[in-house]
Amino acid sequence: MPSWLVHAISHSRWPCTTQSVTATPRAPNGGLYPPAMYNGGMFIDQVNIHVKSGKGGDGMVHFRREKFVPLGGPDGGDGGRGGNVIFEVKATLNTLSAFRQNEKFAADPGKNGGGSEKTGRGGKDLIIYIPPGTVIYDAETGALLGDLTTAGQQLLVCKGGRGGLGNQHYVTSRNQAPRMAERGEPHEEKKLRLELKLIADIGIIGLPNAGKSTLLAALTNAKPKIGDYPFTTLEPNLGVANIDADTTVVMADIPGLIEGAAEGAGLGHDFLRHIQRTRVLIHMVDGLGEDPLADFSQINSELALFDPNLAKKPQIVVLNKIDQPDVQERLKTIKASFKKKKIELFTASAMARTNTRDILIAAHRKLADLPAEELEEALPVYKPPVDPNQFEVQQEESNKWRVTGVGIERSAKMTYWEHDGSLRRFQKLMERLGVDKALHEAGVQEGDTVYIGDFELEWKE
């Protein structure tokens, strides 16, 4: 005789309600690349959030009852599908600051089925808008879920639960009045880490106080903070530079890097991450520095240590502050040192706007010479992380056992334990998956308690 799990002692010990939250982050202003991108607000480029899809609606056990129609038959309707959680790139967004106020997002659940074969209404999908360049990770496993770069790109991260079937689907020639149905499929939830990597054509890099923000202000309509002390810029800035009447490029001013940035010194990792999205670099070298060539080498070393691909990006090397008398005195020697290393050196004064236009044109030429960039597609379709039929049996105490597995736990949540037909259906599923056999081989005894997800059952022979 087979062994069955026949008695559901208790249902969910942690009842969960689903709440709909509207998530529509807005840009600080409406422009694609605003003049002063982060002025007036704190720049946020990394957040942790919690997302949850909608539970499927429950199917219904119902029989047609109508005057002059005896034995009307089962007509229980199906539950509606729960809403999905989807990320979508919106071009007008440029920061993750909207997530500071709201860290939890939930899609709508599906409605329960009704009589007369009425299907419950499906839950509305929750679309969460993010800026271009957002990378999405599973915060618990570290797995990369998607890298979204182009407007309109979508990524489904939590699939809504399927609606449960009503008893109309279980009619057979031997069972004309089935008292069984399905509860809706449970929701999915994830803890996610979102990272923003600025997307720019040209990035300006260099040591602190090298003149990066001044150059950005000279070439674009951006208004970054500028000061005569190190680390004036504490957050990246974007600006748009005009090449001609029909051509523009997006430029990013990356805050100053210091020695050890690749290991996280200062805010190295935060700043280096943004350089990964730029295609051409303008490397600003401070002409007043003790050894400009050594400063240049230091920054390139940090780039290579953080990501070898960064060191391979085309660079325009610019010696800044040539309007200063001290630099004029050393200019010939500095040029010779760079020439010896076969490095083309541009000279400029970002403050006086000397040669700044030439630098922009040279950077644009390198940009035009690059092959068209092939953007990686986001993961468009949901893929189950594991085989839903896999399960494990573990003995917790002498008379207590726990069965874990995606499929079996989901089926337990979808079972109407109060209906004998649903209970028999779950027993057959246990036998088909091999859970019954595995428990018997593990040594389960009459009267032992078996836990499946949130449910506690008693073993009977």
Describe the structure.
- The chain is of the alpha/beta class.
- The chain has helices at residues 212-219, 268-275, 292-306, 325-340, 356-369, 406-413, 420-433, 435-442, and strands at 4-10, 46-52, 85-89, 104-106, 126-130, 134-138, 144-148, 154-158, 189-196, 202-206, 237-242, 248-253, 280-286, 315-320, 345-347, 392-397, 400-404, 449-452, 455-460.
- The strands form four sheets. Strands 11-12-10-13-14-15 form a six-stranded mixed sheet, with helices on both faces. A five-stranded mixed sheet has the order 1-19-18-17-16.
- Strand 13, helix 3 and strand 14 (315-320) form a beta-alpha-beta unit.
- The termini are close together.
- 42% of the residues are buried.
- Mean pLDDT is 77; it is low at 6-43, 224-234 and 258-269.
Summarize the structure in short.
The chain has 461 residues and is of the alpha/beta class. It has helices at 212-219, 268-275, 292-306, 325-340, 356-369, 406-413, 420-433, 435-442, and strands at 4-10, 46-52, 85-89, 104-106, 126-130, 134-138, 144-148, 154-158, 189-196, 202-206, 237-242, 248-253, 280-286, 315-320, 345-347, 392-397, 400-404, 449-452, 455-460.
